[in-house]
Write a structure and sequence with these properties.
There is one protein chain. The protein has about 300 residues and is α+β, with helices and mostly antiparallel strands. The chain has a single domain, classed as Naphthalene 1,2-dioxygenase Alpha Subunit, Chain A, domain 1 (Alpha-Beta Complex), CATH 3.90.380. Helices cover about 20% and strands about 30% of the residues. The protein is built from six helices and 16 strands. Helix 5 links the parallel strand 15 and strand 16. The longest helix has 20 residues. The two termini are about 10 Å apart. Bound molecules: fe (ii) ion. Fe (ii) ion (FE2) binds next to loops. The site of fe (ii) ion has 5 residues, from loops.
Length: about 300
């Protein structure tokens, strides 16, 4: 089975919005070159702060800016850029972590973000620790009020974390919930060590470059707890750099959606739910469908 293909763009992703750059990293003196769904793009900012994204081949695209990110839709948008109500709360301005290239399929990157089982191993000393690595039972359900393709929510997630965030001075049992709102957009809500009655919100948007290469755009909506944006960014970069080699060594490169495909951890209900949801909505990008696995012509 081929590890990657050059294919007709997936209609779900083609007609959705994807981040392709962050305003804070654009420079009037230098064009930002990137690729979205195999399509080369260039993003520029002028001295007045106006941002323009263009396809290299001159074909039209849709663009907008939200949460400090530049968003592009190559087709006809079927819905707006994801709404994030917490981004409107004045005490937690969005913090862009930066664009992190990863040689992995977009759905693999999302699935890894959802995987509670890896926290105690891959992020030992931060988001989990040996021997408290057991994944406690949690619930996964369809996400109410989701976008046109639906979504998922995983609730009652709990994990002992020695250093849940830069502000954490001691370990504690962290309450979480996760949402998957688009095929390549996910977020988690987790306890803040200072504001115990509100949640920090961490989004992960994945820019699909090719089927097996991606650019991760984490976005933080964290409560004021004395941590600087630079410290928040640095912490998330450490966490993502721990994930990167794991992601880049997963095989097959594309996420298998057929019954009986490997799963990283038996207890990982959200992985199973994510794969089933992608199969149900008919995503074809970065995945191995049951039809393909059965050897039928695509
Ligand atoms: Fe991770």
């Amino acid at each position: 089975m081929q590890e990657w293909r050059t294919m007709t763009p997936d209609p779900i992703l083609w007609n959705d919005w994807h981040p392709v750059a962050a305003r804070c990293t654009l420079d009037p003196g230098r064009a930002h070159h990137t690729v979205l769904l195999h399509v080369p793009l260039v993003v520029t900012i002028d001295a007045a702060g106006t941002i323009i994204a263009r396809r290299n081949d001159g074909a039209p695209l849709q663009q907008c800016e939200r949460y400090g990110l530049v968003w592009v839709c190559l087709g006809t948008p079927v819905q707006p850029v994801l709404a994030i109500p917490e981004a409107d709360e004045p005490d937690r301005p969005p913090v862009v972590v930066g664009a992190i290239g990863v040689r992995a399929a977009g759905p693999r990157v999302i699935e890894n973000f959802l995987d509670l089982g890896h926290l105690g191993y891959v992020h030992a000393g931060y988001l989990g620790d040996d021997p408290q690595t057991r994944v406690l039972p949690y619930d996964v359900a369809p996400l109410p009020d989701a976008g046109v393709h639906g979504g998922l929510i995983a609730t009652r997630c709990r994990m002992y974390q020695p250093k849940a965030s830069p502000a954490a001075t001691e370990g504690f049992l962290v309450d979480y919930f996760y949402k998957v709102e688009r095929p390549l957009a996910t977020c988690l809500y987790k306890d803040n060590p200072v504001h115990r009655d509100r949640f920090d919100v961490i989004y992960l948007f994945v820019q699909p470059v090719t089927e097996v290469t991606s650019i991760a755009h984490p976005l933080l909506l964290c409560l004021p707890d004395g941590t600087t944006p630079a410290a928040l960014r640095a912490f998330q970069q450490i966490i993502f750099m721990q994930d990167k080699p794991i992601l880049e060594n997963q095989r097959p490169a594309r996420l298998p959606l057929y019954d009986g495909a490997e799963l990283p951890i038996g207890a990982d209900r959200s992985s199973v739910a994510y794969r089933r949801w992608l199969a149900a909505i008919g995503l074809r990008w970065g995945v191995i469908t049951a039809t393909e696995a059965a050897g039928a012509p695509r």
